[in-house]
Each structure stands twice: as structure tokens, then as C-alpha cells.
Amino acid sequence: xxxxxxxxxxxxxxxxxxxxxxxxxxxxxxxxYLEGLLYTEYLNYWDYVQLDTLLTLQVPRTxxxxxxxxxxxxxxxxxxxxxILKEIKQLSAGEQTTANWEKRISRINRYMExxxxxxxxxxxGMDPEEFxxxxxxxxxxxxxxxxxxRIIELLSTKLTQLSNDPDKDWTGxxxxxxxxxxxxxxxxTELSSGKQTLTLKRFAEKYGRxxxxxxxxxxxxxxxxxxxxxxxxxxxxxxxxVMLRTFDASFxxxxxxxxxxxxxxxxxxxxxxxxxxxxxxxxxxxxxxFQNRTFFPELWTSEERANWGRAWFEEVLAxxx
Length: 321
Ligand code: HEM
Description:
Layout: H1 9-25, H2 30-39, H3 45-48, H4 51-54, H5 67-93, H6 98-118, H7 120-123, H8 128-136, H9 147-156, H10 175-180, H11 198-217, H12 223-232, H13 238-267, H14 282-285, H15 288-291, H16 302-306, H17 310-320
The structure holds protoporphyrin IX containing FE (HEM).
């Protein structure tokens, strides 16, 4: 990085005054810090991005080379989820203006677009035979257990909207009641017994408490609730409406569809390969058309809601199954 202003005695003095002010404010002696600068090492790229550590985080469980693709793509996705959560949290706690909403939602949409476009790495980028083998060595782990995915949902919409019956009158229901109704708890169900899978049980053990606390913390500051207030003050512009619809469709239709496409690609071929998911009801559960999930229902017409995920769904089944 190069200095932006050419050095001049006046500029030097200005900088020293600012530094003096900064260090004095915390009772520190500027001279000592300036002397320290003489010995401080230059920052290196590899230290800054913690490259060496980052590259040690891929630890396959089998010897199949493609397993690393699977691990890394999940890690990449989790980092994008982290970026999305960072924007949602800043928006939730920040200025409730159209400009701030547009800035944050457009960033989120950019991240979602990258995720949706790159999902082909999963759909076509791995050897199916290798996949079927290393997948068996990973049971009962599943992306289903991605806590960041669940937190994005909790921070984006109302708890009633995450239930399997958003139109029901939920008056009087507590946060606890509503968390117990969240849709994905019916997701990981064993086809053979109808019971909760170990995948789900383990997730609930690790994150159950965090789910409840987060749900409670964001009851009044989730995006859908804040959007209601934005609408009341006439700040929902056409542009922002389009952006929010894009976010909703990206998360609840297009990403889910690309993801479903990967499940169809690898898991739908033989009945016995159902075992590779721990024998779950994923065919009934994963398609966005069946999930019919939306963060911002008031931004869609009833016709759009009736056809939720339909065109894409049919395209996927026609092309891949
Ligand atoms: C070849 C790639 C993939 C396949 C075949 C696959 C398969 C599945 C299946 C079958 C399920 C249903 C639950 C279960 O049976 O375990 C599921 C759920 C899920 N997976 Fe994946 N997955 C893949 C990649 C990914 C990636 C890269 C992510 C990114 C984090 C991910 C995140 C999720 C999430 C969040 C769920 C829960 C979705 C919901 O509740 O609606 N998956 N996956």
C-alpha cells in the first residue's frame, strides 16, 4: 500500500498532532509507540489472511481426492454465509433508511449470486462414484447441520414464517412454541421409521439453545419485522422491493434448487443409495416447491406464491433425473 498524500512538513506535523491526540486520549506515550515502529515487521499477505492456517483446514476422512472438493466447497459456502450474516446483523442494528437497506441487501444478493452460480462445482464437479463412496464415510454429518444457514433464516424472517403453517393464527404462541414448530425439524426424518435422524438429534444437542436465544433476540429485529416498519414509513421503494424479492428468491428458491439438483444428481439413481443420506425423506423435503418457504410473503402476489419454485423444479427434474 502506498501513501495517498505526498509527505510535506505540514502534513508530518498534522499527522503527529493527530497521533499525539489519539495516544494521549488513552494515556499512552506516543514516543514509545513511534520507537516501536522502528522494530515492527512489515505485514505480509500470508500472515494477514492467515493462509497457512486456512490451508490446513481441509481434512478428508477418506483417500478419495474429490472429497477435498466437497470439504472446500462447504467451507467456501460457510464463509459466504458469514458475509451474509454480517450484513443482516449490521442492517438489523443499523440505520433504518432506504439507502442503508439497499446497500446491505445488494451486498447479500451479490453473495447469493456467487453461491448459486458456483453450485455447479457440486452438481458436475465431482466424480459420482467417488462421491457415493466418501459420502458413506461421512454419515451422519450433513449440510443440514449448517447452523449459519439456520441463523440466516432466523434473522431474515418472522418465526411464524418458518413454521410449516405460516397462515395459522399464532396469537399467544411463545418463542419456545414457535421454535419447536420450525419447518426443518420435520426435514431430517428417517423414511423407514418416521423418526428424527441422528443428524437432527446431534444438531439439536449442539445448537438447540443457541437457536432459542437467537430467535428470541431477533423477534423484533428480524428483517421481515423491520421491513414492516419501513413500509409503514413509506420507505420501501420499487428498487428495494426488487432487491428484497431477489434475496428471498435466491435463498428460498434458486439456492435450494441448485442444492436439490446436486442431491438428484448423486442420490436419486438407485433406491439403495438412499442410504447415503442416512435414509432421509430428502426427495419430499428439499424441493423449494414443497417447502414453499418465503421470508417476505407480502412482497409476492398470490399467483407467484402458488407457483413458488415450480418452473425451476420441473426444469431440474427434466434435465437431471
Ligand atoms: C453433492 C453435494 C450435496 C448433496 C448430495 C447434498 C445432499 C443433501 C441432502 C440429501 C439433504 C437432506 C438432509 C439429509 O438427508 O442429510 C441436505 C440438506 C442440506 N444441505 Fe446439502 N448436499 C450437498 C451439498 C451441500 C452444500 C455445499 C451445502 C452448503 C452448506 C449444503 C447445505 C445443506 C443444507 C443447509 C441443508 C438443509 C436444507 C433445508 O433444511 O432446507 N449441502 N443436503
